[in-house]
Amino acid sequence: MTHNWVSLKCCALSLAVGLIFGCVQIAPQAPLDGLGGTSWQLVKFQGGDGAVLMPDDKVKYTIAFTADGTLNVRFDCNRGRGTWTSPGPNQLQFGPLALTRAMCPPGSLHDHIVRQWPFVRSYTISGGNLFLMADGGSYEFEPIR
Q1: Residues 42, 62: contact at Cβ < 8 Å?
Q2: Please, are residues 31 and 46 in contact by the beta-carbon 8 Å criterion?
Q3: Is 144 in contact with 37 (CB distance < 8 Å)?
Q4: Which of 65, 72, 67, 63 is nearest to 31 (CA)?
Q5: Is the pLDDT of residue 31 over 90?
Q6: For the chain, first and last CA: distance in Å?
Q7: Cα dihedral sign, 62-142-87-121
Q8: Got the DSSP string for 44-97?
Q9: CB atoms within 10 A of CB 62
């Protein structure tokens, strides 16, 4: 009889746990809107102080957003991979970026972009170009065709 009582208690506890966890809703992942599957190259950086920085070669500064929330970047002599999400309209969040650590030549925008990367919070697409807004200014990218 004791065995049956223990089994009954275990079944009741399993049912209660199943009901509790079965009713918990997991928040859906934020949609990865229209950036997924697009690739861009840097046109310029426009600082909040009016400073303009332009790459010596646009193809050395690229971002490729995948539909699954990963991205691939090239910042001059370094390449990297990370994650991205768009939690709301025109909002953008980048995860940590795994980046090679080669020493880029003088005049490179590598260090500038890497310092600003965690502070990119939003984006807009205007005139066919992508604008990433960071605390210190905005990066303008054009589509890679």
Answers
A1: yes
A2: no
A3: no
A4: 67
A5: no
A6: 76
A7: positive
A8: EEEETTS-EE--S-GGGEEEEE-TTSEEEEEETTEEEEEEEE--STTB-EE---
A9: 17
User: What is the Cα–Cα distance from 59 to 75, expressed in whole angstroms?
Assistant: 9
DSSP, res 128: T
Q: Are 100 and 78 in contact (CB under 8 A)?
A: yes
For 69-73, which contacts have Cβ atoms below 8 Å and span 24 or more sequence positions? 69/29, 69/32, 69/36, 73/97, 73/99
pLDDT given at position 67? 93
The pTM of the full predicted model, rounded to 2 decimals, is 0.77
Residue with tokens 């090239």: 74
**Which is it for strands 137-143 and 38-47: parallel, antiparallel or unpaired?**
antiparallel
Single-letter code of the amino acid located at 80: G
**Which residues have C-beta within 8 Å of that of residue 28, sequence separation ≥ 6?**
none
pLDDT tens sequence across 89-112: 999 999 999 999 999 999 999 999
Which of 50, 44, 54 is closest to 132 using CA atoms?
44
Whose tokens are 């210190």? That residue is 136
In terms of residues, how long is the chain? 145
